[in-house]
Structures are given as structure tokens and as C-alpha cells.
Amino acid sequence: MILRLVILALLSQITFAEETVKAPVPAATAAECHGDFKMIVTGLDSDEGQIKFDLDNAADTFKPKENGKPAFTKGRSPIKDKRVEYTFKDIPCGEYAVKLYHDANMNQTLDKNFIGVPKEQYGFSNCKGCMLPPNWKKAKFTFDKEHPTITIEL
């Protein structure tokens, strides 16, 4: 009788151990999710200069002239064959929006004519051909490990 109880106790421990090993691993939380985010820009007029990017993670940084807050992160990249590929490294998963411009003459500003119309190409996420900047809600997209790349066509 004692032998049966000992064997039953050992078997229950083995079953418990197997169940522990087979327990599902919880999905990573947003705070644990990071990755490299790749931007592709096409439709550029020339290979001169560079593309300047702002990657914003909130509505109040998407329109910085209204409040002076900087973008979440910035980037710039040379142009090759009228195309740019740029990777932001180790970005937390979440909602973002991109604004960019082609700094053709490398003067660190989006050049405009005398009535304020940009002379250099510019663009936004989720807004092909927009003449005016879209609002945050329209421009935002989700970055996660399943969606690591976006393309903006100018």
C-alpha cells in the first residue's frame, strides 16, 4: 500500500512537470517589443542631396511648429537611383507617423517659393500626393514585428 502511494506521488510530480513545460509562453507586451523599422521612399526627382525623416509617435510631435516638441527620432539618407532605403534601429512597437522632405541642396530646410509653396519634394505616411500635411489620425500606422516596413511614394 505504501509503495502504491509513493508511485502515485512520483507519477503526479512527473505529470505536473510535463504540464509546466507545456504551458504556453505569454506573448510579448508592447513594452518588450522592439525592432528595426525600414522606410522606403520612391518617386524622387533626382539623386541630389538627401532625404530627411521625422518619425513621430504622438499627435503633438507630428506638427512640431505648433508646439515646439521634437520628433520621436530623426533620420537622413542619401539617394541612389531616385530611391531611398533607411532603417530606424531598435524602435519600440506602437503607432507612428512619418514626415519627410528631399533636401536637394543640402541646406537643412524645406525650400519654399515666395508664396510658401515647397520647391522640394515632401511626403507623409499614408498620404500619397497630399498637398497639405495630414492630421495624426490619417498619417499614423502601426509598427510591429509583422509590419516592419513602409513605403512612401512621392
Description:
The chain has 154 residues and is of the alpha+beta class. The protein has a single domain, classed as Sandwich (Immunoglobulin-like), CATH 2.60.40. It is 19% helix and 34% strand. The chain contains three helices and eight strands; from the N terminus they run αββαββββαββ. It has helices spanning 2-22, 59-62, 136-139; strands spanning 34-42, 50-56, 73-78, 84-92, 94-103, 122-124, 141-143, 149-153. Strands 2, 3, 5, 6 and 7 form a five-stranded antiparallel β-sheet that branches. The longest helix is centred in the first third of the chain and has 21 residues, at 2-22. The protein is globular and about 45 Å long. The termini are far apart. The relative contact order is 0.22. The model is unreliable at 1-28 (pLDDT under 50).
Low-pLDDT sequence parts? 1-28
Helix tally equals 3
Strand percentage lies at 25-35%
Roughly how many Å apart are the termini?
A: 81 Å
Largest sheet: 5 strands, antiparallel
CATH architecture, please? Sandwich
Per DSSP E runs of 2 or more residues, the count of β-strands stands at: 8
Mean pLDDT: 82
Structural class: alpha+beta
Helix content estimate: 10-25%
Cα gyration radius (Å): 25 Å
CATH topology: Immunoglobulin-like
Under the CATH scheme, which class? Mainly Beta
Anisotropy-based shape:
globular
Provide the succession of SSEs. HEEHEEEEHEE
Provide the number of structural domains.
1
